[in-house]
Design brief:
- It is a single chain.
- With 485 residues, the protein is α/β, with parallel strands linked by helices.
- It folds into 2 domains: 137 residues, no CATH class; 302 residues, Metallo-dependent phosphatases (Purple Acid Phosphatase, chain A, domain 2), CATH 3.60.21.10.
- Helix content is 28%, strand content 26%.
- The protein has 14 helices and 24 strands.
- The strands form 5 sheets. Strands 9, 10, 11, 12, 21, 22, 23 and 24 form an 8-stranded mixed beta sheet that branches.
- A hairpin with a 2-residue loop joins strand 19 and strand 20.
- The longest helix is centred in the first third of the chain and has 25 residues.
- The radius of gyration is 31 Å and the shape is elongated.
- The relative contact order is 0.10.
């Protein structure tokens, strides 16, 4: 019996030794090593250390393998046994004055590899020019025009769940449709004279916006400066607007109408007030003009998608300003601008100031005339006045009286666009007055991150369209060369 018991004990001891020995040498069971973090060669030591610190109090079942994956379009899903996290978005940039609007994909890939003329979108600001890739602009599509850098982790299901819980709170957000506000600014709209004649011929306000409406409607907010009030007296001889032109404005998705122009009283005070009422009934917000001086002076402030914007709009010198209880444009006062800019900045708003300044009228022939490209081509100190608004704290200053587009510049911490030109008008006699410089401001994370420029043109059919690539290159190069020195 004793031998039997001893034999059983020896068997158990031997079996146990073998069982635990296997675990010891295979690092399983009681002797199992916990999983480790394994990093691809592309990881910097500092990056790896951040993840080791994040996982320092976590025991893993198996190894987690970390690597970076780059894709030029958003991923459709995670491969089995992996979890992928978006950690950066790389976009191509150019100098603020560059005429380059888009680059091919292979050029973008080369830039990413070399680190040349690319930046993380989280570091993008309006001092640099974001450009498209194969015509796809990231801040419009959010899924193209960029290189998306992902952190990919391979491992077991339990460990991947743990990794997700740890990493997700550390991820930064990036621009997307839900958090990026786009606002298009367009130049002079003056529905009158030849436009009234064409309206009588075509009978449809959407005729004039047919080639530009879809583009302008695509933005969250769209602005124009309309100089003509609606009137039953509209004719080919005045700058009063046929009421059917309201359909043109709604077709471009107009949200903001600026009333700083000098022709809104051409049809009389009653029509000017009735026009304001039509805008209000259509849900179009008003800035820079009103039924009286108090209403005209009110800033337009709004907060959408996490960004606050204040618009101020003034008439400095072209006439048509309100006096007391009469309707009209908001007369410029440096004291008023200083106070209202200060109030808006105290709220943390981005400030855009629009200005009707002296007009350049050197349209002396049917050939190209560059005189009006320059900021000081009109009376007064246009450069000094506009730059002073930036010094007062404005982020963007836009001239809205010029019938021919004027130059632009980066000044201090802000941007100045001295004149946008005509988007809807009948001036087809001079090449310069058929063009306009349009702007699209993009706001993300409470700040202005980019202003994209676009060009429009119309001819004798009075249908405004976007410029093609060659027209746009010529246009921007010409305006950039005229910038103040």
């Amino acid at each position: 019996m004793k031998k039997f018991v001893v034999g059983i004990l020896c068997f158990l001891i031997a079996g146990g030794a073998g069982f635990f020995g296997i675990q010891f040498f295979t690092k399983t069971g009681l002797f199992r090593n916990p999983g480790e973090l394994v990093f691809a060669e592309s990881f910097l030591d500092s990056e790896a250390e951040e993840y080791r610190e994040l996982f320092s109090e976590t025991t893993l079942d198996k190894d987690l393998v970390f690597s970076y994956v780059s894709e030029t379009s958003l991923r459709s899903g995670d491969p089995e046994g992996t979890k992928t996290f978006l950690v950066d978005v790389i976009v191509p940039i150019e100098d603020f004055y560059s005429t380059v609007e888009t680059i091919p994909l292979d050029e973008f890939d080369r830039r990413v590899a070399s680190g040349e003329n690319v930046v993380s979108v989280s570091e993008l600001d309006s001092s640099e020019k974001l450009i498209a890739v194969d015509g796809r602009y990231f801040l419009d599509s959010f899924s193209d025009g960029a290189m998306f850098k992902y952190l990919r982790i391979e491992g077991g299901e339990k460990d991947l769940k743990t990794a997700t819980e740890l990493i997700t709170p550390t991820l930064q957000s990036f621009p997307e449709k839900s958090n990026t506000l786009s606002m298009a600014q367009t130049g002079v709209t003056a529905f009158g004279r030849g436009l009234n004649s064409m309206m009588n011929s075509v009978g449809d306000g959407k005729y004039f916006s047919e080639k530009i409406g879809e583009y302008l409607r695509s933005f969250d907010l769209t602005h124009t400066s309309n100089e003509a009030s609606f009137s039953e007296n509209a004719s080919s001889a005045n700058i009063c607007a046929d009421e059917r032109f309201l359909d043109t404005l709604t077709d471009i998705g107009l949200d903001i109408v600026e009333l700083t122009g000098n022709h809104n009283l051409d049809c009389g005070a009653e029509d000017a007030i009735a026009t304001i009422e039509k805008y209000e009934q259509a849900g179009i917000k008003i800035v820079g003009g009103g039924r009286n001086a108090e209403e005209a002076a009110r800033p337009l402030s709004f907060n959408q998608k996490g960004s606050g914007i204040t618009m101020l709009a003034y008439n400095e010198s072209t006439g048509g300003a309100t006096t007391g209880d009469t309707p009209g444009a908001n007369q410029y006062s440096e004291e008023d601008a200083r106070e209202r800019i200060s109030e808006a900045k105290a709220r943390g708003d981005t400030v855009i100031v629009d200005m009707q300044y002296f007009e350049c009228s050197e349209y002396d022939s049917a050939v190209e005339n560059t005189a009006c490209d320059y900021a000081n081509s009109s009376d007064g100190d246009q450069i000094g006045v506009f730059r002073n608004l930036i010094d007062l704290g404005a982020d963007v200053v836009v001239g809205t009286s010029a019938h021919q587009p004027q130059t632009f510049e980066k000044y201090g911490r802000g941007e100045i666009y001295y004149g946008l030109g005509n988007i809807f008008f009948d001036q087809v006699w001079w090449p310069g007055t058929t063009r306009s410089l349009g702007l699209v401001h993009y706001f993300w994370d409470g700040k202005l991150v980019q202003t994209r420029r676009f060009g429009t043109v119309y001819d004798s059919d009075l249908q405004t369209r976007l410029m093609d690539d060659s027209e746009m290159e010529y246009f921007i190069e010409r305006l950039a060369e005229a910038r103040p020195l």
